[in-house]
Amino acid sequence: xxxxVIIYSFSKLAVQIASLLSKKGYxxxxxxxxxxxxxxxxxxxxxxxxxxxxxDKNILYLDMIKNNIQAFFxxxxxxxxxxxxxxxxxxxxKDLKIISVSFAxxxxxxxxxxxxxxxINPYEIGALRIFRLLxxxxxxxxxxxxxxxxxxxxISEITIGKSSIFNNVFLxxxxxxxxxxxxxxxxxxxxxxDKFIFYSQGIAHKIDEGDTLVLLGKADDLERFTLxxxxxx
Amino acid sequence: xxxxxxxxxxxxxSSKKYYRTKSFVYETLEGTNSKQRKYFDLFMIFLVLSTVxxxxxxxxxxxxxxxxxxxxxxIIIFIIEWLGRLWVxxxxxxxxxxxxxxxxxxxxxxxxxxxxxxxxxxxxxxILSPMSIIDLLAILPYYRPLRILRILMIFRLFKILRYTNSxxxxxxxxxxxxxxxxxxxxxxxxxxxxxxxxxxxxxGAGVNPNIHNYFDAIYWSIITISTVGFGDISPITIQGRIAxxxxxxxxxxxxxxxxxxxxxxxSEKLLILKExxxxxxxxxxxxxxxxxxxxxxxxxxxxxxxxxxxxxxIIDKNDEKFKDKNTQDFLAIKGDATDxxxxxxxxxxxxxxxxxxxxxxxxxxxxxxxLSTRSLNPTIRIIARANNPxxxxxxxxxxxxxxILANxxxxxxxxxxxxxxxxxxxIDDILLNSEDAIMDEIKIEESSYCIGxxxxxININKFNITLIGVIKEENKKSFIFNPQKNTYIVEKNDIFxxxxxxxxxxxxxxxxxxxxxxxxxxxxx
Lengths: 233, 525
What we know:
heterodimer; A: alpha/beta; Alpha-Beta Plaits; 9 helices; B: Helix Hairpins
């Protein structure tokens, strides 16, 4: 079954998100009320539903669990509508990934409180990009290559399984990451909390089942390491 | 004789030394934003205040001998200053050259007198200007035989008007409202004339023992209309009292009217004053960046620039955006950044302006800003924001060096979240410069002790810093990802790309750039 995402409101940001995700093979469902934007979304080949999500009945009508919805993007240009819809969707679907847009850093907290799993602030990201263009051009270049371009260096996350050779291993006692020419950016440790901890913050603990490692490396090295990691003890 | 004057004028016109000297004197005495003028003004204020203080001290003290010498020096400086101002007030040589060339063109005889008259007219016009008269009145009391002129020393205080911008601006405000003040003055004098005449007619002929002549009547009118009311002269007739009532009411009107004129003029001028101040400050900066559009993106950018002490100037049509308590200290101008004259005034054509950032939410406005900027400075770096992806090409065509599509980058980040949510957290933190992890670069300078050492000798890990790779600047900026610690040898101009928290990075930078190891380190062979 094809992965499906819902994009609420076909804003300028939504156009970009839909374009990227459809290229990655996701099926897009656009929720929009504006006839002009509906026409635009349809012309780009997206499935569109003209309903208001200010009413819970309509959210339930989308039946996100049955329809295997992977994520809900709440990217309206109206901050208050975003908050309202995020809260409503979260109230009905506790485990759904909700990615909401925020236009000011000060609004991030309220958006998280409303239930967003992740917040995207295009202005902040854009401004920091300009800042890096001026002051950290090398870093920008490298980040672009790693994150967005087709370079041979990739960022990857690997979750440790119960039978993994890495399970119950102390980080300080192993050189396996270095030996595979990889860089450990950080860990999401399920036992401590759900926050991502950068390796540079000084991680000195045991890797357990359920932990997720975020690694940076060449595609081949990452692939080899993933196989190695999942090899049974 | 005529020929000698013309030759001399041409000599001055072609002399770089003369031009430099005159420019220096002009900048010192009259330059709007010159550094030397600031110091000169401060020096002159000190000189004026000290000589006035001497005058006050002299009233009931015996002066010390050196004080006279001090005043002589001060007066000499005042005279030199006045002569300097007289010199730079006009370009006399240009009149002679212009008239001479005109006569040559028309094949007519050149009349030096005609040029000299024009020069004289300009110089006399300067000499008779209010500030020049104040300067002269400040010098005059030095002539001791005219002791009565000592009181003119007080005019030196007026000289301070020259040296303080805010007082000068206040003077300009008053001058701009001279019609209103003139009308007010006529009303005032009419009221005084009526009041004085009425009181003199009814109480002047021995009726009121305190009113002996018309001067007493005028004195009473002014004291009454100003609402001071000493009470030494009071009306005793019913007509006199009625006149008093009208004068008091009229007086309040005069005060209210004059206050409102000054207040209105000042508030009108306030914005211009602020702009002039900002432009003055901008012109004194050795390098600055211009941000056009102080929206959500502009605010984030300004915050980041503030963190690294980068000078910047904001231009936005809506000055309400600058009134936030976090942003009111920024250098900001209310204006249209597409206006070439505004861009010229802020010095976009100068070397100090290093980058123009056009980030309004209107692509057409951004394009117009780019074109206006490019027309004034063909080499300046221009970074523009495209709100619509289709506008990117046009912005580049207009002359933008780089174009940012904020939505495109945000969409890229958002799309990463679906596949790898944990990796996304890392990306997000790095992209947003979070407290936990900053991606930074360290350049290995020539003086660094690390040159020639293996990476493992530097032991970056002890700082809790992750080394992502090294950029070889001298080798076409090639990037070596995750260099091997036991084999890679650090070279001059290597750029380390690292991830760590702010403090760790600071420590590492200090160590790499300044630390000199005491113990002997084995260099790689």
